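Please, structure for the following, as tokens.
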Amino acid sequence: MTESLKKHFEYVPFKNTGFFADMDVRNMVAIKLDQGQLIFIANNNDRPDLFKVDNQKK
């Protein structure tokens, strides 16, 4: 998803981003650390997920 200045989220296909969350996502938060970036996902009625962002192009 991409975020605009109005806090509007736009769907971006996972084929374009390389990111896929396979549950019923309620909320997502990007966490920036000195060691890199994480994505925390709160899933609806399920356990949360935590992903490490890999910015290396393959």
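The mean pLDDT is 84. The beta strands are 2-3, 9-10, 25-33, 36-43, 49-52.
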